[in-house]
Amino acid sequence: MLCNKVLNTGYGCFQWLLLMSCGAVYAVCALSTTTLSFVLPAAKCDFHLSSSDKGRLTATPLIGMCVGSYFWGNLADARGRRKAIIGALLLDALAAFVSSLVQSFPAFLACRFFSGFGIIGATGLIFPYFGDFLSLRHRDVMLCRLEVFWTFGTILLPGIAWLIIQDPRLNITAEGADFQYTSWRVFVAACGIPSLLVVLLLLPFPESPRYLLHMNKAEQALQVLQRIFVVNTKLTEKDFPVESMISAYDGEEAEVVAADNNGNETKSPLTWNQRWNAFWNRKKMLVTPPYIGLLVLCCFVDFGLMFSYYTLMMWFPDLFERFSQFSSLSPGVSAGVCEVSANVTRDELLGKNECPQAIDDTVYIHTLVVALSCVPTALSVGLSINMVGKKLMLVMMLISSGLAALGLNLVRSSLQNLLLSCVFEAIVSCTEAVLFCVICEIFPTKVAATAMAVTVTCGRVGAIVGNVVFGALVDQHCVVPIYMFGALLITSGLLCIILPKSTRPERPQ
């Protein structure tokens, strides 16, 4: 099997270099995904955005992600994972640059659709690409380390936004000109540059050896493994213990056979008709008990999780900005999130808040603090998940994050709002990763990938619905979506109690 041949290549410098490069890609994915969180308050005046418009704006890239995930998955199967990741990053960069130039809100929405369409390709493929270079022994730990880079991306965002959006010198065009290129547009374009830079980091690395074997390119796969062996061991290619490789198909996955100079082991591949039948047999397995029930439960959990997490993550800077405006207009007055939102909206209707408005520095600081609060959780989850147990950790994280979401109705100041936002974000930011670990445990290998894809799609749909609902209700009825966040998370946590520990045998170490 391929994992055995990866073991022969050794574990060391190559995997760590690839971790740094793939981690940089994943950090850029976080940066691109959350760019609009600072566009909401910054572009409000230029596009005359209502809260409903803001909800549509944050939902549009997610629609692109739902469409793009299928496209990039098929492209990766046809042309290779590395090429698909590079293509996705280039499209994201192009969409960022073009969106910074367009002058109308509908055109900006279209560009952000393609940004989401592109970045989901890199987000969804970077984990399997990296995992193909790891043995089973090191895969879980290294993939958990890769997850930490997402947090680094969210930490970089407020710093980049503060440096660019707050700088009046970057308002390149004059106020009132027909063509506007203000500082927030420079920020949008700047967020596309890292997508180009990480492409350069991926260029020195080879295509996934597993993909090469599936494409019957055994000789190229062998060359990749020899290259990894040389980097890790500092020996020569001649010292690599595998001299030739062939790929075969057993109805589920490629099998790799090593052979020496005395002869080769062979295994006849199945016909296309047999492969097609095997494919549908695996899909039918997923929609029969007990797996159909587990799939529905996982989809519900990820729907509620992303309904809450992605929505609040995108709206935190806007909520912090509303607290800042309220404090400047009503100094010393205590108020909750919903009261602040209602008062700021009323003041805008009465013309008390004039355009253009500079975003207060505290918005950037608070957003950075929220992002930093995720670091301890991101580092500790990978270390403690096996000790605590995936299922128990998932239940605890969902229920505690639900309680934190409900607590947003109780805060009475900007500081209280910041502290509770940090608690919520620190817990919920790693919850989906734990859910993915659970999915890998409760579904058989041959249907786990499909179960994961369906679950992720339901999560993105939840994020779309959450942003639209929050945008429609935040001004006058924001208590409703906050209660929805808490109820969905707590209900998901309670339902996860019935999940089995595993339906699969223990994997080899």
Radius of gyration: 24 Å
Order of helices and strands: HHHHHHHHHHHHEEHHHHHHHHHH
Task: Tell me the distance between the termini.
Answer: 15 Å
Cα shape: globular
How much β-strand is present in the residues? under 5%
Largest beta-sheet details: 2 strands, antiparallel
Estimate the helix proportion, in percent. over 70%
Label the structural class.
mainly alpha
Per DSSP E runs of 2 or more residues, the count of β-strands stands at: 2
- The average pLDDT is 82
**Spans of at least 5 consecutive residues with low confidence:** 248-268, 503-509
Number of helical elements: 22
Largest sheet: spatial strand order? 1-2
Structural write-up:
The protein has 509 residues and is mainly α. Helices cover 73% and strands 2% of the residues. It is built from 22 helices and 2 strands. The chain has a two-stranded antiparallel sheet. Helix 5 (51-79) packs across helix 7 (105-131) and helix 14 packs across helix 15 (337-349). The protein is globular and about 75 Å long. The two termini are 15 Å apart.
